Amino acid sequence: MSLDTGGLPSAGPGHRAAWLKRCPVLLRTGWIVRAGVGQVPSEGDDAEGYPSGVTKEQSPISPEIAGPRPRRLTYAAVLTALEGVGLAVGGVWVLVLGVAGDPDDRQQAVTLGVTLIALALLPLLAARGLFAQRSWSRGPSIITQILALPVAYSLLQADSIAIPAGIAIAVIAIATLVFLINPATTQALGIRGPGNAPDQK
C-alpha cells in the first residue's frame, strides 16, 4: 500500500480510516491527525498547521494566562485604593458637616461632598482592575495621580495643618506613578510599547 504526497494511503476511504486507527497521532510536516478525526491542512495553510492568515499570536487555541502579580503592581493597587478610600471618607465627612451645619453653606457643602464621593469611584475601580491585572486599569490610576499632584501643591502652599496632608498626597501620587510605569508592571498588565508589538505576518 503506497503513500501519496499528503502522507495518507492512496486507497479508498475504508483503507484510509483503518490506517488512521492504527496511527493515533500522526505528526508530519506541521499538521496533526488524531484518532477518529482527520484534519489535513489545505494548500493555503502555513507550514506549522495554522489556517491561512492566522499566526501563533492570533491562535485562539491557547488563551493568555496571567502570570503572578509583581509587588510593584500590588503596591500601586494598594496606594490607588487608599486614595479612593480617602476621597470617599472626605466626601462623606463634608456631606455630614454640610447637612448638620449652617443652612447658608449647606448646598455648597453637599455639592462638594457628593463630588468627592463620585471622584472616589475612579481610583477604586482602577485599584480593582490593577489587582485583577487588567490593562485598562493603568489609565484611570495615572489620571488619579495627575489630578492629585495639583491638590497636593495647593495644600503645601497653605500655612496651616493642611501641609502634612499635602506632603502625604504628593508622596503617594509620585510613588504610584513610579510603580505604574515600571516595566514589570506594564508587562504584567499586558501593555506593549510601540516597539514591542508582535510582528504580523
**Mean pLDDT score:** 74
* Low-pLDDT sequence parts: 1-6, 24-51, 56-65
Strand order of the largest sheet: 1-2
Characterize the biggest β-sheet.
Answer: 2 strands, antiparallel
Question: What oligomeric state is this?
Answer: single chain
Note the run of SSEs as H and E: HEEHHHHH
Can you tell me the overall shape?
Answer: elongated
Instruction: Give the N-terminus to C-terminus distance in angstroms.
Output: 39 Å
Q: Would you tell me the structural class of the helices and strands?
A: mainly alpha
Number of helices: 6
| Beta-strand share of residues | under 5%
Radius of gyration: 30 Å
Number of strands: 2
Descriptive account of the structure:
By secondary structure, this protein is mainly alpha-helical. Helices cover 55% and strands 4% of the residues. The protein contains six helices and two strands, in the order αββααααα. The chain has helices at residues 13-22, 71-100, 106-131, 138-157, 162-180, 183-188; strands spanning 25-28, 31-34. It has a two-stranded antiparallel ribbon. Helix 2 (71-100) packs antiparallel against helix 3 (106-131) and helix 2 runs antiparallel to helix 5 (162-180). The protein is elongated.
